[in-house]
Amino acid sequence: MWFRFADGLRRFFDGDVFYSFRHSPVIMVAFAVTVLYFLLAFLAPWVAPHNTYDVMTLNLMDGFKPPVWEAGGDPRFLLGTDDQGRDVLSTIMFGARVSLTVGFLSVLLAMVLGIVLGMVAGYVGGKTDAIIMRIADVQLSFPAILIVLLIDGFTRSVLPRGVHEQLALVVLVLSIAFANWVQFARTVRGSCLVEKNKEYVQAARVIGLHPALIMLRHVLPNVMGPILVIATLGLASAVLTEATLSFLGVGVPPTEPSLGTLINVGSDYLFSGSWWITIFPGAALAVLVLAVNLLGDWLRDALNPKLR
Shortest CA distance to 100 belongs to which of 38, 52, 31, 35? Predict the structure, then answer.
């Protein structure tokens, strides 16, 4: 097992994808920025200068302090503080943690749902294919943000207020995933329609393999390239969707602020001179989305054999 893993790793480092990565300085920087975001976000409880969730450490007298290089800045707060005296740098780290968690889990769920439905539609065909694809076509006629708002509004009307606040992250992940499964399903279906007529799939049918085993063992590995591209680009889209919802006040609760919540809080004080409360979280969100989108665009080109 170890030798197979080592051999696969060696072939990856000798392959075209890693060669393209090594010769793309912009992509290397984008990858480093993305990894840094994930590390700072998920290690925030240990590396953040302050714990923004510990109300015992907050002091309202520390509110609205500018960045350290501005007049009146405090060395304890590198990027200043918000209206509640929370360190902006620490809130960005904890906020990125929430945004990346929601984005990653929603993309993972959308990918699983889209792969399953897309492979069933492409491999089985017939009425099953028609029903799944018509549902996908109907959903594509609505903006993703509208679908998420509808699901969130429905859960708010059904669940008690306290229960909804406890399940806000779960509802947000499910709603974003349900809004984005179509791209995976349509791509997998198209690739499955091509792969299922090839000789290796027909040979698997002849020896009596179950259709589910054929799809998982033989068809799925050959459609993973487009799936990885959509997942990478979908991560940036999901993070941006979550930030938009939180900015509108229908995303995560204020007790678990994301980057969108921080931008929303800071927007109330933008024109009063406390620009850092919203500018720094907004810049952090923009850099994250840009880096992930650059990785997705590069991955799409690197995995396209016509461009090699």
Answer: 38
